[in-house]
TrEMBL record:
Gene name of the record: LOC109714062
Entry keywords, A to Z: Iron, Metal-binding, Oxidoreductase
InterPro entries per record: DIOX_N (IPR026992), IPNS-like_FE2OG_OXY (IPR044861), IPNS-like_sf (IPR027443), Iron_ascorbate_oxido_reductase (IPR050231), Oxoglu/Fe-dep_dioxygenase_dom (IPR005123)
The Fe2OG dioxygenase domain, residue ranges: 199-298
Cofactor(s) required, per the database record: L-ascorbate
Species this protein is from: Ananas comosus
One example GO MF annotation: oxidoreductase activity
Protein name (database record): Gibberellin 2-beta-dioxygenase 8-like
Protein family according to the UniProt entry: Belongs to the iron/ascorbate-dependent oxidoreductase family.
Length: 343
């Protein structure tokens, strides 16, 4: 990795994890999954977006398949999505350079507006610890000036160009998919969801280093997404799991398609027609994993509402939802989410 030792670029995951074990609140075994069993691998419903562009009956069939997947799975895959393989390759190159920079540089250089995160340093048990590092980038704060972020390992101008290019493409795709799903429920307005802009939408660059405690360790804890829609590009290394019929299933990795999942806001707006499904990432013992996720979010003062009445949920804005989630995580260590807003 750019001729630097792993010790200089890796966050102190092992040290922090072992310190949590030594607190005595966990058993001697570092197992953190629910049951330690290997999840069955599944193929998500695959939607060919070329049918959307064909119009007529092909478009209606495609929209119907997408809506069924959003309702039954909360997840689906899309092929022929229109984003070039080159855009992802350019972003992956920059992503690897970025994560390959010395750990001190990632923490202190301010690259991507200090959006670097690692491990969950506030964890009080290994069950809350994340074997991962990420840049959670607000699209309104993408750097375009040239400056070094890794002592010669890259510069933010080329990174900003790659992020800009890919974020624009993923944003357009996310809005198209959200619009089709909303239209399927009778929405006839212009653009859905409304009031989405760069201030609230995010691109998250993820890296999951090899983990000596795998396969029991979380790369990401079980959670639902607090947005309308998430579009994910992952590499060929598996790790993504989702809850289906009250059991965890592993998603077969396919870098040639994109994974799409429904977020909490879309579940509320659809009056529970579409499902925001719990998912997690399990670390790999020998191989690192990369992924890129785009989160489609409205402005903080946007009312979420419902596509039908009576609504299952109280009226709330995205800002109120976000504040409640942050408060719950601070008080209880986990997200409560939509149940807080049920009538």
């Amino acid at each position: 990795m750019n001729n630097i030792s792993a010790g200089t670029c890796e966050p102190p995951l092992i040290e922090s994890y072992e310190a949590l074990l030594l607190r005595g609140s966990e058993s001697a075994s570092p197992r953190t999954s629910f049951d330690g069993e290997v999840a069955e691998q599944c193929e998500l419903p695959l939607i060919d977006l070329a049918d959307l562009r064909r119009g007529g009956e092909a478009r209606r069939a495609c929209a119907g398949a997408m809506a069924r997947a959003a309702s039954e799975w909360g997840f689906f895959q899309v092929a022929n999505h229109g984003i070039s393989a080159r855009a992802f390759a350019e972003m992956r190159r920059e992503q690897k350079l970025l994560f390959g920079a010395p750990f001190e540089a990632k923490v202190s250089s301010g690259v991507l507006n200090n959006s670097y995160r690692w491990g969950n340093p506030t964890a009080t048990s290994v069950k809350q610890f994340l074997w991962s590092e990420a840049f959670h980038v607000s699209l309104a704060k993408i750097p375009h000036e040239t400056c070094s972020y890794g002592y010669g390992y890259g510069d933010s101008s080329s990174l900003g160009v790659a992020v800009d290019k890919l974020a624009a493409a993923m944003s357009a795709l996310a809005r198209t998919l959200a619009g089709v799903l909303a239209e399927n429920l009778g929405y006839t307005g212009n653009g859905f969801p409304v009031n989405c802009d760069d201030k609230t939408c995010f691109l998250r660059l993820n890296r999951y280093p090899p983990c000596p405690f795998a396969p029991e360790t979380f790369g990401l804890m079980p959670h639902t997404d607090s947005d309308f829609l998430t579009v994910l590009h992952q590499d060929h290394i598996g790790g993504l799991h989702l809850m289906k019929d009250s059991e965890w299933v592993a998603v077969a990795p396919n870098p040639d398609v994109l994974v799409v999942n429904i977020g909490d806001l879309f579940q509320a707006w659809s009056n529970d027609t579409y499902k925001s499904v719990e998912h997690k990432v399990i670390a790999n013992k020998k191989r690192e994993r990369y992924s890129i996720a785009y989160f489609l979010c409205p402005s903080y003062d946007s009312p979420i509402g419902s596509c039908k009445k009576p609504s299952l949920y109280k009226d709330f804005t995205f800002g109120e939802f976000r504040e409640q989630v942050q408060d719950d995580v601070k008080r209880f260590g986990y997200k409560v989410g939509l149940p807080r807003f049920l009538l």
